[in-house]
Amino acid sequence: MPAELRFHTVHASESPQESKQIEQLLTESDLGWDSRVETFVVCRKGAALVACAGIDRNVVKCVAISPAFRGTSLSLQLGGELLKVAMERGHFHLFLYTKPDNTVFFRGWGFYPLVEVRDKVALMENSPIAIRRYCSDLRALRKHGGKIGCIVMNANPFTLGHRYLADVAAESCDWLHVFIVREEASMFSYAERYELASQGLSHIKNITVHHGSEYIVSRATFPSYFLKGKCTVDQCFTAIDLLLFREHIAPALEITYRYVGTEPACPVTSRYNKDMKHWLETADSRSPSIEVVVVPRITLRGSPISASEVRRLLQNKSLQEIKKLVPETTMRQLISRFGDQRRETEMTDGDDH
Amino acid sequence: MRIITEAVAGSLESSDLLVKVSPSRDKTLEIYVTSDVIEQFGTQIRHVVDDTLKRLAVTDGLIVIEDKGALDYAIRARVQTAVLRGAACKELNWEQLS
Question: What's the DSSP call for residue A319?
Fold first, then answer.
């Protein structure tokens, strides 16, 4: 009697032996090992590892099935097991990375295509309507006619640099949509960043400050951005994030211009800005081009004003110097939070502009 | 009955179905069905789903169904389970479930 299929969960960091086997299976399927994937659901037949599926929070990737088991019921069992693990961890809305040729296969897992970089990679989500709903919510906030611009910012924290960029954009547009990155991976919480950006932009009349979402610069759409302190650019899926913007978000709000500041400090953001021109303007897409406008950063005594500089000064306890880099609204917050008893433990952070 | 939390029932395997329920944002009942056999049995599947929801008196929620060719009673059971989980229902009214 043939050995039964057994499914179990592997924590990559705790099982080097099994990790090696998983890596081998991935290699056989022409896939790379992804160090961000903390959990794998694996299937064994006897001692042999015959299938695996990785999950990094709410993002599924590194799905591989040994050739002999492709096209069997194993794949749907694997999908079901994976879903169970994700649900147990409180992740209901899932994203999935795969090769474009495999999107049909993952329809069987209940995933639907979101966006695709031809011949390279596709992003899917496990809902037939989530993106449509999101875009219809956005459409309710759209402003018709004229020149519509957009800025996506993390604002960690909001500086005079962000304000300058928005001022320039709002000046040349009939309406400006600003999105604040929602992911909680920054020194300042999302609520704090959103609040400070809203206050710092309240003088602009033709503006909407939007809440960010999983569809804009999130762990799902742009994983590299949130690798703390590393600024790795090799696996930048900037294309996914930018095409998602061009094909879903921009049309919903009739955005035709995207504004961005020059980025001298962080390689990831710098690369993102460079890729922006390609994916928003020239790359093949079912949606029209979006013009990218690069605005030189304002400087203070020759050095550009950036949020990373503010965080560096905070680390050095130089509150006074920060005064020249941020609007009063941000300064008040910094003083109330760091003025007297500074909390050293919160002083580490990754990339941001 | 209202869906107040996200819940799942069923599986993706052949002759089964996966039912996912989540709260509605605008107090409506929305139902999406995809099926391997939607061409032949789409209307019948939808009928069973609608009827099951009606008997449970589900008034709002988002119901997403990935059907893999399940028979009617499997559809009924999976929808009931997902809804009761999603509505955080503790006490069962067996008449509604028959």
Answer: H
